[in-house]
Amino acid sequence: MNAELPRMSLLIDGAFVESTTGTWKDIVNPATQQVLGQVPFATLDEVNRAVAAAREAFKTWRKTPIGTRARIFLKYQQLIRENIGELAAILTAEQGKTLPDAEGDVFRGLEVVEHAAAIGNLQLGELANNVANGVDTYSLLQPLGVCAGITPFNFPAMIPLWMFPMAIATGNTFILKPSEQDPMVTMRLVELALEAGIPKGVLNVVHGGEEVVNALCDHPDIKAVSFVGSTRVGTHVYQRASLAGKRVQCMMGAKNHAVVLPDANKEQTLNAMAGAAFGAAGQRCMAASTMVLVGAAREWIPELVAKASTLKVGPGHAKGIDVGPLISTTACARVEGLIESGINEGAKLELDGRKPQVEGYEKGNFVGPTIFSGVKPGMRIYDEEIFGPVLIILEVDTLEQAIALVNANPNGNGTAVFTQSGAAARKFQEDIDVGQVGINVPIPVPVPMFSFTGSRGSKLGDLGPYGKQVVLFYTQTKTVTARWFDDDTLSHGVNTTISLK
Q: Which SUPFAM superfamilies does its entry note (predicted)?
């Protein structure tokens, strides 16, 4: 272990502490293979200490006035805005996405922080006055206790900010496990959260892999677990944490179809698809990775290929770059292998992005925009989530066939339709069995006043991140039925019925 490299700390009970673990993982710049720092795989004792700190802090945090909680997040959103350039630079160095996209990553998380600052208007119960003689019934939305979040590599700013601000604003305490591949920007956000005034023990951070994930799923003092990541890991987390009696929400893999009708605005559609398929090097669970061309729209393929060919591949920090590197050499090899499988299974390779020449960055994990046409269900490039800058194209004759194709896929994260027909758009949004629908919008991730609503194979758990749903996820509804007596309303005699007369 190189002692000169920065080492990520754990956050336990308000203090940044160095792990006593013997297992450390390098944090690698995916454009250069430069080692930026090291992250510990926390010990089980350290996980237990973090949970114990959160459990103790909950005793007082749950009683903290809601206005006090809200003001912390007002301060936090200000600090994020003031440091967004620094945060984006850290993110780009360790994750690879372009600086503008990294700023977008931070900003979409910032929107949820702003939403958390409005918790006074969100965590409201209900009241029914005088439901019987002198009887009122009202509900309270009370915090659960210690909650945990497990976040992925592809959005190391946005997704942690989806989780801990809303959990903490609703009165819970939190254990965050960032991705071990790019935890540096997450830890900087954590530092700013403490600066904003989050008390000790309310937010804790442990790093690690499967052992730490399992410990969070199993720990009896953790009441709820939030997860974003792959379907394989998400299914494991959901099953294990649910068996341990926890609330669980898991946002998982996807195969997002964009259906293009021939009446769509061609230029707008092709621009949108090129950005949505190849932005972030395709490493988005909401990437528009699958294009379904309806009827005469199949004639647009050459123009799409020409547009994608103009996108510039390179290191995310450089100006004018459109597509940065993949997160790791392993990810790069997997994407290249899937491209090879598409060729072998008979799809037509319209644009080959393998092994692009990026001068000065020959060791980078680069794959350029890649396009396949003639794709059919059953091919690996259709059946698997590629998670790289690869756009696959299928062709059908009618909108009805396109809807049937999308609905036959097991995933339901997002979908889109491109058309200038209101009737076609309405039919699509009504008949499609996918949780999030875009109409001339390729990546329909909702703003925080709404909830992220992926469905079917892309989601386990009934309540999604942020918005109204996450307030319900992080709170327990307690219903109170109350009667107060005065001398004039004292009841006379024993009532053995269930009524409230």
A: ALDH-like
Strand boundaries in 34-121, DSSP class E: 35-40
Report yes or no: 146 and 167 within 8 Å, Cβ to Cβ.
Answer: no
CATH 3.40.309.10 positions along the chain are: 257-439
Tokens of 283: 């490493």
Contact of 369 with 338, CB cutoff 8 Å: no
- pLDDT of 489 higher than 70: no
Q: Mean pLDDT throughout 130-140?
A: 93
Q: Which residues are catalytic?
A: 285
Residue 321, classed as helix, strand or coil, is coil
The CATH 3.40.605.10 domain(s) of the chain lie at: 10-252+466-480
- The answer, as to whether pTM is greater than 0.85, is yes
Poorest-confidence range of 33-42, 259-268, 447-456? 447-456
Please give the CATH topology (third level) of the domain spanning 10-252+466-480. Aldehyde Dehydrogenase; Chain A, domain 1 (3.40.605)
Contact 95, 29 (CB under 8 A): no
> Which CA distances in Å does 485 have to 135, 140, 457, 482?
10, 22, 53, 10
Q: How much is the pLDDT for 96? A: 98
Alpha helices in 123-256 (DSSP H): 158-169, 184-196, 210-218, 231-243
Cα 153 to the chain's mean position, in Å?
10
Q: What angle do CA 105, 108, 110 make, to 5 degrees?
A: 105
**CATH class name, domain 257-439:** alpha beta
Chain centroid to CA 290: how far?
A: 20
Name the residue among 116, 113, 43 with its Cα closest to residue 84.
113
| Portion of the chain with pLDDT greater than 70, in percent | 98
Using the predicted structure, report yes or no on whether residue 1 has a pLDDT greater than 50.
no
Average pLDDT over residues 245-256: 97
Q: Is the pLDDT of residue 383 over 60?
A: yes
Amino acid at 293: L
pLDDT given for residue 498 in this prediction: 79
Using pLDDT thresholds of 50, 70 and 90, give the confidence band for residue 433.
very high
